[in-house]
Design goal:
The chain has 331 residues and is α/β, with parallel strands linked by helices. It has two domains: 215 residues, P-loop containing nucleotide triphosphate hydrolases (Rossmann fold, 3-Layer(aba) Sandwich), CATH 3.40.50; 98 residues, no CATH class. The chain has twelve helices and 13 strands. A hairpin with a 2-residue loop joins strand 1 and strand 2. Helix 3 packs parallel to helix 6. It is elongated, with a radius of gyration of 21 Å. The protein binds iron/sulfur cluster and magnesium ion.
Length: 331
């Protein structure tokens, strides 16, 4: 049971390696500087566990997180503080994650104080700068207000301002736009893209919504029951998915793009998701896979390069056969 995340900076490598987490098994992610990586899958697949473990909210049962070549487990309190500061999280519900009794100013000033980002005398100017950076202006007018005085989208902007306040290297956004109105979602996604570029961040964007992935992230990792079953460049995964589970997700998603629609020959996901605490042997997807063969129930498939992506499936060509047949039938 291990979780590996590699994050490259010009100064070194962030890698969270060999991190055993309940319900997460053998997950390895690579995050390049400036990259927006999507982590997708149904609820309960382990996405949030990974996020929470990386930012230190969930203790791994064993294993290591390696940051810039050093084991976080061996960090001094000061080094650990730096690490915590470097990896920030934005949650799904911006109301839940903001203290209703704290003003915008004290919410955003808190990480600035904790991590001593600016001298005391510059706190106010820095908070104003951060509010402007997330598109809340005139910032001065917002400083003394409380969370309930804002809309959902504005509250999420406040959460994002708080997350970038400590000048992190990585932002992990867990369903950060799921609770927002559709009309607001695009604005917040645009903000994430802008900040990722401007601040030279890398982001892991956790979502079950494939349209979010497509509009925002250049790479995607698809999770099923605690494992990554397919990963690669978003365009490639969306237009030529190799894993039956990815195909099923795409099939179920109302994505309008004709390129994607063409590749949406799949099947509807049926059957219950097995318990992550007691996953099926062999390929964990075999209980729901329409092209499963006897080998699938006993041998777990490893991720391997297939058609420009990496997929963990013994029989991806089995799917292409089905596809040929259905094309022939259509003709
Ligand atoms: Fe389906 Fe077998 Fe591939 Fe798993 S390994 S996705 S059960 S064909
Ligand atoms: Mg979740």
């Amino acid at each position: 049971h291990e979780l590996k995340v590699h994050y490259e900076t010009s100064g070194g490598l962030f890698s969270a390696g060999s991190l055993p987490v309940r319900a997460v098994d053998g997950v390895s992610l690579e995050l390049k500087r400036g990259e927006l990586l999507a982590l997708v899958g149904e609820s309960g697949c382990g996405k949030s566990t990974i996020a929470r473990t990386l930012v230190g909210l969930t203790e791994p049962t064993a294993g290591d997180i390696i940051y810039a070549g050093q084991n976080v487990g061996n960090f001094s309190p000061q080094e650990r503080q730096n690490f915590r500061r470097s990896v920030q999280m934005v949650f799904q519900d911006p109301f839940d994650s903001l203290n209703p009794r704290k003003t915008v100013f004290s919410t955003i000033a808190q990480p600035l104080r904790i991590h001593k980002i600016v001298p005391r005398a510059e706190l106010k100017a820095e908070v104003i700068r951060l509010l402007n950076a997330v598109g809340l202006s005139p910032a001065e007018a917002y400083l003394g207000r409380y969370p309930h005085q804002f809309s959902g989208g504005q509250r999420q902007r406040i959460c994002i301002a708080r997350a970038i306040a400590s000048r992190p290297k990585i932002i992990i956004a867990d369903e950060a736009v799921s609770a927002l109105d559709v009309s607001i979602r695009a604005q917040i996604l645009t903000l994430f893209r802008k900040l990722t570029q401007e601040l030279d961040l890398a982001s892991i964007f956790i979502t079950h919504d494939l349209s979010v992935v497509r509009s925002l992230c250049e790479s995607v990792a698809v999770m099923y029951l605690g494992q990554v079953v397919e990963r690669g460049p978003t365009e490639r995964v969306f237009t030529r998915p190799q894993h039956p589970y990815t195909r099923a997700l795409l099939q179920a998603s109302p994505i309008a793009d004709p390129d994607v629609a063409r590749s949406r020959r799949g099947f509807l996901l049926e059957g219950d998701v097995p318990s992550p605490a007691n996953p099926p042997a062999g390929c964990r997807f075999h209980t729901r896979c329409p092209i499963a063969q006897p080998k699938c129930a006993s041998e777990p498939p490893a991720l391997r390069s297939i058609e420009g992506v990496e997929a963990a499936c013994h029989f991806p060509e089995g799917w292409r056969q089905t596809e040929k047949v259905s094309r022939a039938e259509e003709a």
